[in-house]
Amino acid sequence: MKFFRSKSGVALLAIVLIVLFLFRPGVFGLRNRISSSIGNALGRRVTLDNVRLHALPRPGFDLEGLVIYDDPAFSAEPMIRAQDVFAAIRLSSLLRGRIEIATLSATEPSINLVRASNGRWNLATLIERNSRIPVAPTQKAPSERRPAFPYLQATSARINFKAGPEKKSYALTNADVALWQDSENSWGARLKAQPVRTDFNLNDTGQLQINAEWQRAPDLRQTPLRVTMTWQKGQLGQITQLLTGKDRGWRGGLDFAANLEGTPEALTIDSQASIQGFRRYDIVDKRSVRLATHCTGHYQASTGVLNDLACESPSGGGTVKLSGNLATKAVPRNYTLTLQVKDVQAASLVALAHQAKQQLPADLTGEGLLNAEFHATRAGSEPAQFTGSGEATDFLLKANEGSDSIALGNIPLTLVSLSCCGGEQAPKAARGKKPAPEITLEPKDPYLRVGPAKLAVNDAAPLDSTGMLSLQGYAFTVRGDLGLKNVFVLEKALGVPALQPAAEGSAKLAMTISGQWRGLLPPDALGTAQLKNVRAETRGLNTPIEIASATVTLSPALTTIDKLSARTGDTHWSGSVRLPRHCAPNCQYEFDLVADRLSPTDLAEWFTPHPSKHPWYRILSSNSDDQAGPSPLLAAQAHGRLRVAQLAIGKALATQVSTDFAADHGKITLTHLQAQFLQGQHLGDWTIDASVHPPEYHGTGTLQDISLDRLSTLMNDAWITGIANGTFDVRTTGISSHDLLTNADGKLQFSMRNGSFAHVEIPGAPAPFPVSRFSGGLRVKDGKWQLSAGKLQSRDGLYMLTGTSSLGALDFTLTRGNERSWNLTGTLAKPLVEPASEEISRRDPKPEATTKP
Questions:
Q1: Three-state SS across 554-610?
Q2: Residue 525: per-residue pLDDT
Q3: pLDDT single digits (tens) 240-277
Q4: Does the bond joining 585 to the residue before it have cis omega, within 30 degrees of 0?
Q5: CA distance 782 to 159
Q6: What pLDDT sits at residue 543?
Q7: Distance from C-alpha of 634 to C-alpha of 603, rounded to nearest angstrom
Q8: CA-to-CA distance for 60 and 18, rounded, in angstroms?
Q9: What is the DSSP-derived secondary structure letter of residue 74?
């Protein structure tokens, strides 16, 4: 003893301690004894790869490659596998000459929890076995000779779940687990972990914590137990993906707590759940909605019945209560449930709608109260019965800072129960006929009938309205006459995606607004609207649209406008238009339209941006600046048949015009354009590029039996007569007729017959100058028309004609055979004919050139 008190002894002791702390000698011979000790305590076969002595800070063993095998009845895989485990030795057992494990602590182990086909878990059999073994508590007294149940713990563990040999995608990671025996007849367990799924990348599912206590019992089902469970700070979207395999699109922070007390056979359950900041994933709103409920009940495991269920959720000064019994194992499930809604405020429902529904007005508010009581029962194989009623009283919606209101007054609510074979007629679509666009049949499943009620928008006459809510979706129908301003108010308040142009007028509605709960899809509007006296203006469109009457039909895929009678500027339109729905931004419109009067410049004008104006009829314009706006037609993609009674081309009129019309982002194509023109016929193809300014034109085609008499009449000078045919290929650009002629570039092959040039007098030829046939080619460029290969057959012979014309000025040469030539100058109204040379003038002393007065 003196040695250990000396400096040398203290130094030696310190060296020994350091060596024991730093170096852990292998004790391979103890491997079997230690594995047997652990196996006896757990009732499972245990193997070890290696064992090292661990002296400080606490005596024990470092175990490498620990494997605890499962009961073969559950799985051939190990129940627990851990590479690094520390087994602390109970020192009192060493004095008795045996090794007893006090604590078994594993780092990053893998644990498999297996559920057999009979519903039993491998962990349950382990607990059941140890409850029958007379072991001492984990914290036993030193004098206790019985082996103590070791304190089992694991840190950073992974817990996998299996159903027989199949490994499930559910798992618990970063788990801290502990299991111990509290007293002679009681055990305790603790778990803290993060739930995950192996088939998804989830990182915000929150933290699950479970504390459990149970006592010794002959039968595990009769084991008294108490379990406290919390699930905190979970993101709702990731939790729904964890539980159902799909992110349902909802967000919020989920907190859940439950207390279970009783036995596995009969449990009393008390739970609370809340979602803070509930919203849809694509909605950002400063307002925060909290959903919460408190539920109690008694669960009987042998029958699978949840008795005395009572859930209560506060809601804006009111409450929602669910009570009754539910058989979870029965097929079909039997239940007796009652739902009570008491004094729930409409403001709370609107606040919830703001977080669940897009496109609602930000300032939409609600007034009124909701009271109802509903019952659902099902016994044995009998069809379920749903009954109950309620009422929403003084229901009112307000928006636009309170200036717009939608009043429904008192709305009756009725829960309708339908059996599977209750005699409901099958929808017409099931019998092979085209379904009506309006939903009129009641669903086959039980549903809540809403209404009928009178719906009044602002000060307008009330509409008839009814609705239904089911587990699958909803549908609301409105009927009656309503001004367009109020139609837009109603659409906006209900969140229906629709165009809302600056317009006034009225509509007779027979519409159904419906949708499904799943998928977060916007509601859809189906039915008809008969428009009357509508006047609308759209930004970028240079002229208002006046619709005297039209019938708009909304089907699931199309918006159809029939019986159209409308006017844009001086043009009256009739016909039909088909617009695909839900196709933005690449919508392809179809039409069959008839116009009484139109011009190519009208088409270009509608597509050309102009500075915006503010006429008196603009009542809903949302833009007050005077900047030029792009025409919405520049983004249009449309095709169809267009017929025009009169197409004005300058002073000329083309009649009986018909063409296949196509527009694609401002580029207009007129294919197979047929028209009666100058008492003849036009047939060709034209393109108009209105996406550039000024617009560009390109046309190819033929002209047949054109009346040159009519042409000269339009020019206010009867300078030519006869009939002409021709083919053309011409390009031009501009807005006015002058620009179009000046910028023309192309060619024209023509032939003229049985006509005359009234102002041209050729010496020795009859006057006016007769033409039996005249043909040639015209090339136009930069405002100049050049004639080539001109052949003119008159009574006195064949003339060759060449030259140019520019802005009405003539510069042509006429040659008759090989004898005589004349220069044709001046204008069309006053042409001047002179001999082409002095020699020809001397041979013929007669006056060679005259002009008709």
A1: ECCCEEEEEEEEEEECCEEEEEEEEEECCCCCCCCEEEEEEEEEECHHHHHHHHCCE
A2: 84
A3: 888 888 888 888 999 999 999 998 888 999 999 999 98
A4: yes
A5: 85
A6: 76
A7: 11
A8: 16
A9: T
Query: How many Cα atoms are found within 13 Å in the side-chain-facing hemisphere of 199?
Result: 10
Burial of 218 (0-12, 13-18, 19+ CB in 10 A): exposed
- pLDDT tens-digit readout, 820-852: 888 999 988 888 988 886 444 433 444 444 434
What is the pLDDT at residue 149?
Answer: 72
Structure tokens at 824: 């044709």
Dihedrals phi, psi of 246, to nearest 5 degrees:
-150, 135
> Where is 7: in which H helix or E strand?
helix 7-22
Distance CA 615, CA 569 (A): 14
Q: What is the pLDDT of residue 422?
A: 42
Count the neighbouring beta carbons within 10 Å of the beta carbon of residue 203. 9
Whole-angstrom distance, CA of residue 54 vs CA of residue 34: 13
What percent of the chain has a predicted confidence (pLDDT) above 90?
A: 33
Is the pTM above the cut of 0.85? no
pLDDT surpassing 50 at residue 289: yes
How many other CB atoms are found less than 10 A from the CB of residue 118?
Answer: 6
Mean confidence (pLDDT) of the chain: 81
The pair of three-digit structure tokens given for residue 312, joined into one six-digit string:
């209560």
Looking at per-residue pLDDT, the higher value among 632 and 436 belongs to: 632
Please list the residues that pair with 189 across neighbouring strands.
179, 212
Complete DSSP assignment for 83-113: EEEEEEE-HHHHHTTS--EEEEEEES-EEEE
Q: Residue 699: in which H helix or E strand, if any? A: strand 696-707
- Give the integer Cα–Cα distance in Å for 40 and 129: 11
pLDDT, average across residues 759-766: 84
DSSP string covering 709-723: HHHHHHTTS--EEEE
DSSP state of 341: E
315-319, 515-519, 662-666, 721-725: which is most confident = 721-725
Pairing of strands 589-598, 610-611: unpaired
Give 183-217 as a DSSP string. ETTEEEEEEEEEEEETTS------EEEEEEEEE--
Answer whether 702's CB lies under 8 Å from 686's CB.
Answer: no
- Region 784-796 average pLDDT: 90
852 or 7, higher pLDDT? 7
Q: Quickly state the pLDDT bin for 603 (edges 50, 70, 90).
A: low
- Residue 210: what are its φ and ψ, rounded to 5°? -130, 130
- Report helix, strand or coil for 772: strand
Contact 804, 781 (CB under 8 A): no
Cα–Cα distances (Å) from 311 to 228, 293, 377, 448, 484, in that order, read 19, 6, 17, 21, 45
Q: CA 116: distance to chain centroid?
A: 43
Range list of H helices, 293-379: 346-356
The two three-digit tokens of residue 426, written as one number:
């099958």
pLDDT value at position 261?
93
| pLDDT number for residue 609 | 58
Cβ atoms 512, 475 nearer than 8 A: yes
Q: Which long-range contacts (CB under 8 A, 24 or more apart) does 544-550 make?
A: 544/568, 544/615, 544/617, 547/505
Q: Three-state DSSP class for 340?
A: strand
The amino acid that residue 354 corresponds to is H
Cα distances (angstroms) measured from residue 571 to each of 543, 544, 563, 603, 783: 11, 11, 16, 11, 31
Q: Which amino acid is at 814?
A: L
Q: Is the pLDDT of residue 738 over 90?
A: no
Give CA–CA dist 850/853, Å, rounded. Answer: 9
What average pLDDT does this structure show over 616-638? Answer: 54
CB 628 within 8 A of CB 611: yes
Amino acid of residue 793: Q
In Å, how far are 791, 813, 849 from 846, measured between CA atoms? 26, 20, 9
Distance CA 338, CA 309 (A): 10
In the chain, where the domains are located: 20-199, 202-208+222-331, 761-853
